[in-house]
Amino acid sequence: MARRSLIRAGVSALLVLSPAAVTAAAAEDGGDPDARELAREAERNLRDADSLRLVLTDRTAMRSSDRLASMDLALDRRGDCVGTYRMGSDGGTFEIVKRGDEVWMKADWDYWKNQLPGEGEEAADLVRDRYVHGTTDERAFEDFTGACDLMRLQKDLTLDATSKGGRTTVDGKDVITLRGEEDGVPTTLYITADRPHVLVKSVQKGDGTDRTVRVSGYGEPVPSDTPAPRDSVDLSDLEKESGRTR
């Protein structure tokens, strides 16, 4: 079994999250100037944040084991991150921790079974309940450099809206709703009513799409704890255990 394929399978699922997941509707001529201004202020604060926490729920992916159904990811502009990912159906879950150039990844049996048909049980038995540890200098983990880079995500984010709705609350915060479309899908943004105006929630629903992203943790440090050595196995040692070398 190729260790490189085993690890990169997990990375490929992580990269399913695109900047569009928290992008608002495109502004249209004749839209509400107040709505656009609120969205642009929230965009500036989103782009300027040193760290964020993103919680994604994609209900349209729940029935597909090869699609990302939910994610809880804290990341910062230094490239550090901590996250948990769940695939749809019985596709399993995996966790990641990245600190500097070091990466830890742990997946459950269902995840390896679906990502590596015919080899999943062998992979799960080999890794057991451990994190696989390596660095971004290793090809198996290099994709984590971009996936955990908040600056890369911020670069492509835009927040625009065409109309302003009423007020409500999200997670105990008073918010203003903004509406528009993205790629033809109705989008609702929830922006804090008080300054600083920040995005706390984005909902896309319609035309086969049902996705929610909650945004929090503006400027809060990414958890710094890393898995203990007894709970981890280095990628090179894992290759030795499998009887293979890179």
Automatic annotation (TrEMBL):
Signal peptide region: 1-24
Region (Disordered): 209-246
Biased composition (Basic and acidic residues): 231-246
Entry keyword Signal: yes
InterPro entries per the UniProt record, alphabetical: LolA/LolB/LppX
Domain of life: Bacteria
UniProt keyword terms in alphabetical order: Signal
Name assigned to this protein: Lipoprotein
Species assigned in the record: Streptomyces bangladeshensis
Lineage: Bacteria, Bacillati, Actinomycetota, Actinomycetes, Kitasatosporales
